[in-house]
Amino acid sequence: MLNSSNFCCEDMRRNLEYRCIKHGDNIWDCPDNLICYSDSFDEFGIIIHDGGTSYIRILFCPFCGKKLPTSKRDLFFKILENLKLEWDDEKLPPEFKTDEWWKKRGL
Ligand SMILES: [Zn+2]
Ligand SMILES: [Zn+2]
Questions:
Q1: End-to-end CA distance of the chain, in Å?
Q2: Torsion over CA of 38, 40, 41 and 43, rounded to 10 degrees?
Q3: Ligand nearest to the CA of 31
Q4: DSSP assignment, residue 60?
Q5: Phi, psi at residue 79, to the nearest 5°?
Q6: Ligand 1 is an ion; residues with CB less than 5 A from it
Q7: Closest-lying ligand to the alpha carbon of 11?
Q8: What is the number of the ligand closest to the CA of 24?
């Protein structure tokens, strides 16, 4: 999860934390949720509201223009490759579903 030090600005924080009454944590269905954050990849994106859970990765904050963290997506797949695991493998350790895998490796 993000803590307050992860936010580059107040607009980003407000957008990421916004939850409406109707959709709650289902940010993918809520047209008012614009930005998403993936803690397993440590990357930010603009939500594509097409009924799925896809997003366009962004490298800079659309509000304040600061550079966002470098995505750990490539590292993620490299480590999985070394472990001979697929991302949807049921043997995938739960640490890879959160930020645990890169935090505990000090990445
Ligand atoms: Zn910002
Ligand atoms: Zn909503």
A1: 16
A2: 30
A3: 2
A4: B
A5: -65, -40
A6: 8-9, 12, 61, 63-64
A7: 1
A8: 2
